[in-house]
Amino acid sequence: MSQPVEFEITLERTGVTATVLKPPFNVQAVFGAKGGVLVRGTIDGVPFRTQLFPIGDGTHYMVVNREMKAQIKKDAGDTVRVVMQMDTEPRTVEVPDDFAAALAENADAEAKFNTLSVSHRREYVKWIEEAKKSETRARRITQAVEMIAAGEKRK
């Protein structure tokens, strides 16, 4: 894992609602990676695990989502303290037993699910776990297996 880089930066608004931070260093030089770079660290002491996205001019940005802004109680225009390093830990998704059992009954869906990116797998699991009623959860599991087998992504 790379050495942590510490810096203070002002959060920026892009578009209508997106809030980002742009690391004040050459990401490729510091982390030795081009394109999207997986990172972890803290913003004002609150842990994060995300990706730096390339802008195209050699710089990168990181999305500071609504949840993170609420935790740090800051928004665009505010200054934050960031500690960041390259994230080389494997990214995994804990699949609930009932969803795993349904996937196991459909070999095609299970194989396709296992090839999805971590973020897409996480989105399916989150959707299923957000169900408040057991009937809704069961219906979502069935729908998820069908969507995955058909090659559809949740979002």
Number of separate helices: 6
Over the alpha carbons, how many angstroms does the gyration radius reach?
Answer: 19 Å
How many separate domains? 2
Using the coordinates shown, work out and report the CATH topology of the largest domain. Answer: Elongation Factor Tu (Ef-tu), domain 3
Short description:
By secondary structure, the chain is an alpha+beta fold. The protein has helices at residues 27-31, 66-72, 97-104, 107-115, 118-129, 134-149; strands at residues 5-10, 12-14, 18-21, 37-43, 46-54, 60-63, 79-86. It has 6 helices and 7 strands.
Notes on the structure:
Helix content is 37%, strand content 26%. It has helices spanning 27-31, 66-72, 97-104, 107-115, 118-129, 134-149, and strands at residues 5-10, 12-14, 18-21, 37-43, 46-54, 60-63, 79-86. The protein has a 7-stranded antiparallel β-sheet. A hairpin with a 3-residue loop joins strand 2 and strand 3. It is elongated and about 50 Å long. The model has no long low-confidence stretch (mean pLDDT 92).
Write the layout of secondary structure elements.
Layout: E1 5-10, E2 12-14, E3 18-21, H1 27-31, E4 37-43, E5 46-54, E6 60-63, H2 66-72, E7 79-86, H3 97-104, H4 107-115, H5 118-129, H6 134-149
Antiparallel strand pairs: 1-7, 2-3, 3-6, 4-5, 4-7, 5-6
Helix pairs in contact: 4-6, 5-6
